[in-house]
């Protein structure tokens, strides 16, 4: 069998050799000169639905037959794949998106690099392999994500031109929300997430698909801090839409992207109460904020909001309440025994105001100490 490691493993191996912070992950294997029948005869288990992929009988790693593909309809699913024993390694590599991802390595470590990917790694260039690039609009997002992951790399002018053509032709309109979200999540975990957005703006995709989402300097600063401070993905996505006029629009955008319910919830709160969160400074406005966003029943959410305040908002907006005091206030607020207060209240209607008063007093006591 002719077996080669391809894709991300080879790319990251070469990047690591050059000192980049890249850790090779799992192998992607491609098999040349075989058929589905011969793979099954060797004990491989077929698992691919759209094209022939097999599990190794011992390691259970995935092995894909070398294949070509042909565009038949708009969008991600509009492809017909052809896999047979006569498909060459060079033909398989040609269908890949970028030259840096179109390098194969044999069992001896020798490279098959027909499209100059190793040289592009050495020169720091992100370049498409062939005109087939324009058949899958997700590749625009992948280019922008790689640009953010490797900020020292430049995008080849011809690749940027091709991306603009894809946007202008309407091919990018067929992007599926789930795949957009997946690329955004990965891009928001890179060293320079705003570069991903800059590339999407430069090629016109952002303006075409997301014209309502403004990327002001304040949004960029918040987004950069959420990533630098390793805040959860839900907060990073909320920061991405934190420039929208209100929480309803922010939540709606993330809903259309199929983002998690937590991300949508945080986006709505930040959209409606960003300034209030930043300016928590007295027992009264802290109590009001905790009450409004149900800190007792949703302490984990409130903790995320305080994380965002401490790490993603400008220091000048923090007012007089240091983060440690707010954390203690949250603990005190949630620590009040509402059941005991309820049992001593004269009537049921007296319970809520008494509980609120006790919680506010607990916070006020912290402020005076």
Automatic annotation (TrEMBL):
Poly A polymerase head domain sequence ranges: 3-127
GO molecular function: ATP binding; CCA tRNA nucleotidyltransferase activity; metal ion binding; RNA binding
SUPFAM superfamilies, sorted: Nucleotidyltransferase, Poly A polymerase C-terminal region-like
Cofactors required: Mg(2+)
Protein's UniProt keywords contain Disulfide bond: no
Protein name: CCA-adding protein
Keywords noted in UniProt: ATP-binding, Magnesium, Metal-binding, Nucleotide-binding, Nucleotidyltransferase, RNA repair, RNA-binding, Transferase, tRNA processing
InterPro entries assigned to the protein according to its UniProt record, in alphabetical order: CCA_bact, NT_sf, PolA_pol_head_dom, PolyA_RNA-bd, tRNA_CCA-adding_enzyme
Hydrolase is among the record's keywords: no
Lineage top rank: taxon: Bacteria
GO terms (BP aspect): RNA repair; tRNA 3'-terminal CCA addition
Species in which this protein is naturally found: Sutterella seckii
Protein family (similarity comment): Belongs to the tRNA nucleotidyltransferase/poly(A) polymerase family.
Ranges where the tRNA nucleotidyltransferase/poly(A) polymerase RNA and SrmB- binding domain occurs: 152-213
């Amino acid at each position: 069998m002719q077996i080669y490691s391809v894709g991300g493993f080879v790319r990251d191996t070469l990047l690591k050799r050059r000192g980049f912070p890249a850790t090779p992950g799992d192998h992607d294997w491609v098999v040349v000169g075989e058929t589905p029948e011969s793979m099954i005869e060797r004990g491989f288990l077929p698992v691919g639905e759209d094209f022939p992929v097999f599990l190794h009988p011992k390691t259970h790693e995935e092995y894909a037959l070398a294949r070509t593909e042909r565009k038949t309809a708009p969008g991600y699913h509009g492809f017909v794949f052809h896999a047979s024993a006569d498909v060459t390694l060079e033909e398989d590599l040609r269908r890949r998106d970028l030259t840096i991802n179109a390098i194969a390595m044999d069992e001896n470590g020798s490279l098959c690099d027909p499209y100059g990917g190793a040289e592009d790694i050495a020169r720091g260039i992100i370049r498409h392999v062939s005109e087939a690039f324009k058949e899958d609009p997700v590749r625009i997002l992948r280019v922008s994500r790689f640009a953010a992951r490797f900020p020292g790399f430049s995008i080849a002018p011809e690749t940027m031109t091709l991306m603009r053509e894809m946007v202008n032709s309407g091919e990018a309109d067929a992007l599926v929300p789930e795949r957009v979200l997946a690329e955004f999540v990965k891009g928001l975990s890179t060293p320079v997430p705003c570069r991903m957005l800059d590339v999407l703006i430069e090629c016109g995709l952002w303006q075409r698909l997301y014209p309502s989402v403004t990327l002001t300097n304040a949004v960029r600063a918040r987004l950069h801090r959420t990533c630098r401070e390793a805040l959860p993905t839900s907060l990073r996505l909320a920061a991405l839409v934190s420039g929208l006029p209100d929480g309803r629009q922010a939540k709606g955008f993330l809903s259309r992207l199929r983002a998690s319910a937590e991300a949508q919830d945080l986006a709505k709160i930040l959209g409606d109460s960003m300034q209030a969160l930043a300016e928590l400074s007295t027992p009264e406005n802290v109590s009001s904020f905790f009450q409004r966003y149900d800190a007792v029943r949703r302490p984990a959410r409130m903790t995320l909001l305080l994380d965002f305040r401490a790490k993603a908002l400008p220091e000048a907006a923090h007012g007089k309440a240091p983060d440690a005091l707010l954390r203690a206030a949250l603990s005190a607020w949630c620590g009040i025994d509402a059941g005991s207060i309820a049992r001593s209240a004269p009537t049921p209607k007296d319970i809520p105001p008494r509980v609120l008063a006790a919680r506010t007093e607990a916070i006020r006591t912290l402020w005076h100490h």
